[in-house]
Amino acid sequence: MPNEILRDKVIVVIGGTSGMGLSGARAIVDAGGRVVCVGLDAAGAAEAEKVIGGAAHVLVGDARLAGAAEAAIARAVAEFGRFDGLYHVAGGSGRRMGDGALHEASEEGWDYTISLNLKSVFLSNRAAVRQFIRQKDEPGRPAGGAVLNMGSVLADSPSPGFFGTIAYAAAKSAIVGMTRAAAARYAPENIRFNVVAPGLVDTPMARRAATDEQIMAYARAKQPLDGGRIGRPEDLDAAVVYLLSEQARFVTGQVLAVDGGWGVSEG
């Protein structure tokens, strides 16, 4: 019998129609949960709905706008009668918009990258907490909840040679600070906040790196586990399921690196 540690849990996945978000959403369903996913375009949303199946509802929305997370949480409550957790994955590189090394980065690149990677997390986390507080005294509704945010090893293990985008690193560092501050503030209400921090993972965002042999050689040295390789979206799934489940009910304010050894390797 499968280990359904998320049985009957309802999780909203922001950025759940591709890459690590889609893989995580499937893992949540496989663990007995149900999901509402938010993706940026209709084609990705339709494909995700086919991949995940009937335990999912998929919405199109922009995570940089407050209404995206609010609509997804409202859908979770309307369709499944409850809301137990948020997994925020949405984010990405601002390199093409002007993010880069500090002396080269543009204001446009900074604003775009911070909005995509940090403002979006603020908005989704705020929406989640408001719903957790709203439902805590309602009969039959779950008390508390879990929030899991997507970080990066670049928050505290820089790689200026190949991954030197300053706004992206700043945003991912700020996510850790925000998550820990929220974890401290809302622990008395049984609302948990944690971060999962991947290394280089084979996703659409990593396409530039995945097709560059120099970067791949560097990644093999920085991520020596399992023969030295780029990560796969499914490498994060067990950590995601655990941190959203009751098995992690005594865990909050933590950053779990799933990085193939990046943070402890010289490379």
Give a description of the structure.
A seven-stranded parallel β-sheet has the order 3-2-1-4-5-6-7, sandwiched between helices. The longest helix is centred in the middle third of the chain and has 29 residues, at 107-135. It is an alpha/beta fold and 267 residues long. The chain is globular. Strand 5 (145-150), helix 5 (166-186) and strand 6 (191-198) form a beta-alpha-beta unit. 41% of the residues lie in helices and 14% in strands. It contains eight helices and seven strands, in the order βαβαβαβαβαβαααβ. It has a single domain, classed as 3-Layer(aba) Sandwich (Rossmann fold). The mean pLDDT is 94.
Classification by helices and strands: alpha/beta
Instruction: Classify the beta-strand content into a percent band.
Output: 5-15%
Query: Helical element count?
Result: 8
Named CATH topology:
Rossmann fold
CATH class: Alpha Beta
Query: Within the largest sheet, what's the order of strands?
Result: 3-2-1-4-5-6-7
The CATH superfamily bears the name NAD(P)-binding Rossmann-like Domain
CATH architecture: 3-Layer(aba) Sandwich
Work out the number of β strands: 7
Task: State the low-pLDDT regions, or none.
Answer: none
Q: State the helical fraction.
A: 40-55%
Sequence of secondary-structure elements: EHEHEHEHEHEHHHE
